[in-house]
Amino acid sequence: MRWSLSLGRIAGIRVYIHFTFFILLAFLGLNDWFDTGRWEAAVGGLLLFACLAVIIVLHEFGHALAAKYYGVRTRDITLLPIGGVARLERMPDKPLQELVVALAGPAVNVVLAVGFFIGLTGSGLVAGPQLPSLGTSFVAQLFWINVGLVVFNMIPAFPMDGGRVLRAVLALGMDYVKATRIAAYIGQGIAVLFAVAGLTHFLGASSMLIFIALFVWMGAQGEAEMVRARSVLSGMTVARLMTTQLYVLRPGDPIARAAEILSAGFQSDFPVLEEGRFAGMLTKKDLLEALATQRPETPVSEAMRTDIQPLHYDDTIEAALSLFQTCDCQSLPVTDGNALAGMLTIDRVGDYLTHHGLLKRQPRRAEPAQP
Fold it and tell me: Mean pLDDT in the chain?
């Protein structure tokens, strides 16, 4: 969310708009103005694009509200130039629930398209069951935008909704990982067809299909890897992967002490204990900011974070990964009651997945020394 502007909360969900969206908006406005020489055309194009943004947000809220019905919280919704992203804490556990959540977004577009069509027929712009032409009116353009979003999102390939619908249907009769793998293969096959059509301009296909093909291929591959990783980590507790040999700090220690340990390459994030109890975390990011703006003898208590929620050693790795996403940190303290039991780092999880062939091998770091 670093490069995004918050638009506030709607139904308890934070909505963001990425700054690249404004760049695209300016580009489209200037393009319309240069093509027509009329500022009215540019304003009309920008207004249509703004309406598209609202429609995309409504689409994502369809997913979010359906997920909420099944007890799954949505962290936030971000509007991007390529569409919208609703970040769910997790996908529903049952395939039928995932099917409903995946279909809820396109269902919003269906309802909007029907509403715009009724408005067109009621105003006399469209006679009877005849579909409106694209240039009939502004409302007709909104109608076709919703139709296009339904068709595009129902392509049976990740990361589109159609890929999740396909996976959910397959998972009704087979293992979830296998269903994901099959859906990913189908999605990548569709990506190849898109790429061929884009390269050969088959039936007037646009070269934009090449970009979509790459987007679909990477989305399918990423979804398959993520589900495989979840399967490997399923049921594993934090105690299995946590680090127990680590340096700890006290609130009164100078930040220079942490800087010495960091520069030695032994550890980058530090649990802070007060009278043996967890009091906060001094992350590498906060330490570097403090070193740049404060004196070396500044106490750790003035730079540490107190909003990081500790894990219990019996918590699952899946729960820990969810917490990693919300805390914007690379390490989490692990406690046993009030006592510090260890620390879990995202690198340790990555090393475990690398060992199982689910991530590319990374250069090894120096191991933490015995305190």
Answer: 81
Mean pLDDT of 93-112: 91
Cα–Cα nearest to 258, from 320, 316, 226, 300 = 300
Concatenate the DSSP letters of all residues of 245-290 into one string.
S---B-TTSBHHHHHHHHHTTS-S-EEEEETTEEEEEE-HHHHHHH
Please give the order of strands across the beta sheet that includes 270-274.
270-274, 277-282, 339-345, 331-336, 311-312
Sign of CA dihedral 361, 364, 370, 371: negative
160 CB neighbour count, 10 Å cutoff:
25
Which of 128-132, 238-242, 340-344 is predicted least confidently? Answer: 128-132
Nearest-CA neighbor of 82 among 139, 18, 131? 18
Q: Determine the number of helices (DSSP H) and then strands (DSSP E) in the chain.
A: 12, 9
Distance CA 213, CA 191 (A): 4
Residue 371 clears pLDDT 50, i.e. is over it: no
Cβ 61 vs Cβ 37: under 8 Å: no
Q: Which residues contact 181 (CB under 8 A, 6 or more apart)?
A: 224
Say how many Å lie between the first and final Cα of the chain, rounded. 36
Residue 211 has pLDDT above 80, yes or no: no
Coil, helix or strand at residue 87 = strand
33's tokens: 């103005």
CB atoms under 10 Å from CB of 22, counted, come to 12
Q: Are 59 and 69 in contact (CB under 8 A)?
A: no
Domain map (residue ranges) of the chain = 1-154, 158-234, 238-355
- pLDDT given for residue 362 in this prediction: 45
pLDDT at 91: 74
Per-residue model confidence as pLDDT tens digits over 177-202: 888 888 888 888 888 888 888 777 66
Q: Which of 218, 152, 220 is nearest to 186 (CA)?
A: 220
Q: Does domain 238-355 have CATH number 3.30.450.40?
A: no
Asked if residues 306 and 280 have their Cβ atoms less than 8 Å apart, the reply is yes
